């Protein structure tokens, strides 16, 4: 371990403040189930924006590292690790797969301790739990591979596992960022119809059309409810997926769906922002449920999606619209906030 020395990382030191770029020192040795990975690329998910903003309340682990989707190469393995080996290319993901869930690592920043979870990717090197890694073929495209850590698996899993969209059913995807665009793609591959993408940024809506949306709506320019009803005509809305975590949008989706409709919540409201719904329809077939990463099973789903990409049936490269260095990660985060980044952006280590 000592031979790997220090590495650069983006550290969350204070909520609602820019990340701090600094050099950290690795732990002296790997514990049971821990794997040292050299990160090649990291994605940025809306979940990290929520962590920075304190969406779930005060953060008792500060300072700590962030990031939960990435690609890299295994540099070393700790005791008990069986599912990956030194030299393997891997996808880093936050949903647990097979293997050991190891103790979370702690890094040194001068005299300070920097915390980390079972996976972090906003860093040049990471000590990761074995069960947050899935081995991929040596000829894999490392630029698109991070999308399989969250954006693709969450997007597809939400449509297929949570919403259980069937051929010809209607669907609204509210929020067409990196995860939402993959929901649109999954709905198109499932032959949902119509597939309605809603966002406030035209760039994202243009990408949604490329991914298979039949209709797009800019929520800042038109009456969303009226437009959805116009598109559907006499048809009930079957599925509404919310990626925003805004209570008023969740309530809107619940009202728009038909008696047997499914409302799936991916975005998480800020702590204390409760939703208000009339619950009687739940007794007669309407469903409202939360998604936990699309209930993805990483070691099963990631290889399937990699094969689809290799055969040209899954579009991933089109979703990567910007690449930044780790030094510029705060610029990337701001670009996500203001809509300048339409698809998924990558951090290249």
TrEMBL record:
PROSITE patterns: ADH_ZINC (PS00059)
Keywords linked to the UniProt accession: Metal-binding, Oxidoreductase, Zinc
Domain Enoyl reductase (ER): 14-347
Zinc recorded as keyword: yes
Alphabetized Pfam families for the sequence: ADH_N, ADH_zinc_N
The protein's required cofactors: Zn(2+)
Taxonomy, superkingdom: Bacteria
Family: Belongs to the zinc-containing alcohol dehydrogenase family.
Name under which the protein is recorded: Dehydrogenase
Lineage, top ranks: Bacteria, Pseudomonadati, Pseudomonadota, Alphaproteobacteria, Rhodospirillales
């Amino acid at each position: 371990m000592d031979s790997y020395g220090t590495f650069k990382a983006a550290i969350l030191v204070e909520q609602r403040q820019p990340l701090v770029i600094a050099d950290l020192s690795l732990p002296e040795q790997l514990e049971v189930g821990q794997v040292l990975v050299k990160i090649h690329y990291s994605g940025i998910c809306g979940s990290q924006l929520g962590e920075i903003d304190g969406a779930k309340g005060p953060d008792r682990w500060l300072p700590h590292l962030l990031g939960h989707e990435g690609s890299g190469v295994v540099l070393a393995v700790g005791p008990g690790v069986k599912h990956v080996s030194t030299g393997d290319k891997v996808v880093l993901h936050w949903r647990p797969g097979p293997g050991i869930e190891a103790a979370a690592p702690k890094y040194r920043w001068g005299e300070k301790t920097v915390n980390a979870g079972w996976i972090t990717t906003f860093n040049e090197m990471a000590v990761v739990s074995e069960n947050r890694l899935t081995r991929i073929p040596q000829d894999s495209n490392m630029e698109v591979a991070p999308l399989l850590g969250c954006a693709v698996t969450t997007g597809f899993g939400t449509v297929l596992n949570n919403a259980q969209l069937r051929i010809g059913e209607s669907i609204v995807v509210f929020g067409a960022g990196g995860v939402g665009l993959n929901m649109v793609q999954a709905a198109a591959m499932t032959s949902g119809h119509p597939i309605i993408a809603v966002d406030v940024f035209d760039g994202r809506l243009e990408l949604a059309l490329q991914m298979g949306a039949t209709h797009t709506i800019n929520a800042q320019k038109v009456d969303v409810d009226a437009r959805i009803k116009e598109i559907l005509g006499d048809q009930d809305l079957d599925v509404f997926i919310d990626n925003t975590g805004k209570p008023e949008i969740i309530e809107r989706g619940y009202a728009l769906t038909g008696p047997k409709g499914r409302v799936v919540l991916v975005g998480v409201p800020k702590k204390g922002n409760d939703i208000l719904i009339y619950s009687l329809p739940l007794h007669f077939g309407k469903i409202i449920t939360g998604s936990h990463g699309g209930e993805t099973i990483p070691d099963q789903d990631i290889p399937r999606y990699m094969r689809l990409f290799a055969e040209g049936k899954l579009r991933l490269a089109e979703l990567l619209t910007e690449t930044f260095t780790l030094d510029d990660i705060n610029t990337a985060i701001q670009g996500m906030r203001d809509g300048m980044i339409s698809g998924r952006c990558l951090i290249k280590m």
